[in-house]
Amino acid sequence: MEIIPEGKHFRLVHESELPEILVTLERYLPESLKFHQTIKTYLNDRIWDFKFYVAKDWPDKPIILHFPGCTLAPHNNIYQTLGIFCPSAHIEHVDMLRTEDVLIDWQKPMYLNFTHIAIMNRLDDFYSKFGVMERLSGDIYVCNKLNADLELEPLPEDAEMRLLNLDNVQGIHDLYPANEIECVQLFDILVRKLPGLGIFRKETGELAAWMVHSYYGAMFSMQTRPDFRRMGYGIRLAKSLTQLVIERGYTPFVVIRPGNDASRSLYTKLGYEKAFETCRVRMTPDCYEDSTVGTISNTSYGKFPPLPQGDCVVVTKLRRKHVPGESQTVDEGIEDMLAEKCDISGDEARERKTTTDEGIGEDK
């Protein structure tokens, strides 16, 4: 699709500017960690074709965007899925998005990948007047120093850890808990270019557990098949991949949902510490007209990636009709978080995939 060179308040960044933008973002670590490492991975490995935009007064107004926010976007429109960074100390600059009517069409659904909670709260104050904001909440845990002294039990004799290969890609994507927003081609590129580890049965070659490094620098999607739970595979994978990520010059981090005590315990043993709160968000106007599917309601999102339902998560769905003095808040459970242990069977994964919107556009 056509790339917009300039918005009302933002301009497209030339690739030659990105190294200096990284230096600016370093001032705002750890808040800027996800955005900083997305650019770093983009420069080093070109995992995905992101378009970065900075405020026209950058760096005096330190707010930066990237489109798409994830690798699948509705209607082939990369501008309907968004990544945002703005330091909480300068959170007022998020208000520029309210009148950014060139890059963003607020009359269409928007999808924001994991974003600092302060940014989302600022946007909610604006967006809740005319639409629905669904949040999937989590905490960012960062590893500044790996606990190398942590001793682990050796692997069973019939198991071995080794790098993932292309034969593992489809199976990993099928069981990936957020595969409605990340396409299988992404995992193909990740396995080719970034570290990914699996624990395999020696005799059969069956993949029992796996974990990969993501395009935004995180520890991306640790998963263990049901038959191989409680064998210590998860912490072994996390420790080994954390070390690989550090050796590649990145700061490892994970997203852990607030109620996931098991993941929190695992990563804190390795030296991870909580840095800030984050959330993933789907935003839908109260009345959205889609010419391909007609008018859709607040509970039907047409061609926009859904947030699947699940028993093990918590999300806040904020819906405030624009009626003076009235508001309503509804809490509903939806899908699993990235980067946490997810033990699900193939049947469960296939059932989860049936909730995915079939109208997602072709990925770019």
UniProtKB/TrEMBL annotation:
<feature type="domain" description="N-acetyltransferase">
    <location>
        <begin position="159"/>
        <end position="288"/>
    </location>
</feature>
<dbReference type="GO" id="GO:0047961">
    <property type="term" value="F:glycine N-acyltransferase activity"/>
</dbReference>
<feature type="region of interest" description="Disordered">
    <location>
        <begin position="341"/>
        <end position="364"/>
    </location>
</feature>
<dbReference type="InterPro" id="IPR016181">
    <property type="entry name" value="Acyl_CoA_acyltransferase"/>
</dbReference>
<protein>
    <submittedName>
        <fullName>RE58324p</fullName>
    </submittedName>
</protein>
<dbReference type="InterPro" id="IPR000182">
    <property type="entry name" value="GNAT_dom"/>
</dbReference>
<dbReference type="InterPro" id="IPR053225">
    <property type="entry name" value="Acyl-CoA_N-acyltransferase"/>
</dbReference>
<dbReference type="Pfam" id="PF08445">
    <property type="entry name" value="FR47"/>
</dbReference>
<dbReference type="InterPro" id="IPR013653">
    <property type="entry name" value="GCN5-like_dom"/>
</dbReference>
